Amino acid sequence: MNSNDLMEQIRSAKGLSDYYEFCKVVYQFILEQQPDERPGVLAWFFQLKHEYYGYRNGNMPLSKDLSDQLNDHSNKFKNLIRGLIDFFSIKGYPEKLYYQKLWDSLETLLPDATLEEKGVCLLYVFMDDRTPYYELPVSLQLSNDKFKEISDSIKLSIQQLDFAFGLSKNQRRKSELTSQVVHLLEGLSNFEDKSVLLVYFLNRYEEIWNDIKTKEDRNKTGNSIKPEPGEMSSVEDKNKDTTFLPVSTQDDSDMSKPMEIIANYQYPSINKNEYDFVLIKKGENIFLSDQGKTLKQLDEIFELSEPDVIKNLVAILKHYGAIKQGNEFVIKIDNWNGNINEYENNDIKQGLLSLFSCVSFMLNMKIFYV
What we know:
The protein is an alpha+beta fold. It has helices at residues 3-11, 15-31, 38-51, 64-89, 95-109, 115-127, 144-153, 155-167, 174-186, 191-221, 293-301, 307-320, 346-364, and strands at residues 259-270, 273-282, 285-289, 323-325, 328-332. A 5-stranded antiparallel β-sheet has the order 1-2-3-5-4.
C-alpha cells in the first residue's frame, strides 16, 4: 500500500476503531520506508488527526471491541506512551527530530510487541492532546523569588486584569475581555512580565470555568452538593475547631508529638497575605505546613459547616495530596534526605508547589459563592 491508497481509506473512515486499523497499517508502512523518511511519514499521519477527523478530546466514537482492547493493553502501554511524550514534547525539538526520537523509542522499547500492540501504541499517541506535535520555544522557568519580584513589579496590570474579569460577569463577549488582555500585554515591556501576567489570566479563567462547572453540578443535584457516604465526619459536631475534614483527609496522629521547625519558605501573596510555609519535624515524620494561616482565612470567607463548602475543600485536599493536622494544612515529605534547599531537593520543591496550589485554590474558591 502506498500513501495515496492509505489517504483514500482515511478520508472515508469513521471513528477511532477505523483509525486503530490504520495505525497498524501505518506502523508496517513506516518500517518499509528509508530510515530518514520515517519521521516525516509519522508526522504526516498524525497531522490528519485534525485535518480529516477534527479530533478533539475524545469526540470520536469508540467501539466496544476497541474499548476492550485498550483496557487490556492500558497498564502495559498507556503510561509508556504518556511518559515518552512527556519527556520529548517539552524539549523544543524541530518537528522531524521529535518524531525521529519518538519512533526510535518505540522501536527500542517494543522489539517483541505484536503488530496489534504497536498499533495500540500509535493510537495512544494519536489520542494524546499533544499530538500532532508543534515546535515551540523551550518554556520559561522562573524561581519563586523571581516570580514574586515580577508579580510585584506588574501589580497594577494584575489589578487591571482582575477589573477586566469583573466586567466580564456582565455577559460581555469573550472578545471584549480578550481584547483588553491583549491591550494589557502590549503595555508590558518584556517577555517575562507578559508571561507572568498570563499566569494570572489562566488562573482567573480556571476560576470562572470551575465556577460554571460547580453551578452545573448544583443544578443537577440540588442546591447543595452532598458529601459521599463516609466522606466527612458530622458537621454538626460543634466541639470541632470549625473544621470540616473527614478521616480520609485529617490526621491527628502527630498532634501530641513535639514539633521542630527546620526551614522557612516565602511564597507569593495570596489574597494580599504573605505566605510563609515551614518545614517541620514531628516525631520521625517531616511535613510542609501552612502554619494554620489558610484555615483562619477560610473561616473569614466561608461558612465552614456548609456541606457544599466542605465537599469542595475536601476535594481540593485530596487532589493535591494534602492533609489537615489541627488547624494546619500539611504535605508529608516521604523521602527525607536532610537537604532543605528547594532547588536541590525535588521532593521539597514539589511539596511546596502542591501546598501553594492547594491553599491558593481554596482561597480563590470564593468566586464560586459570589
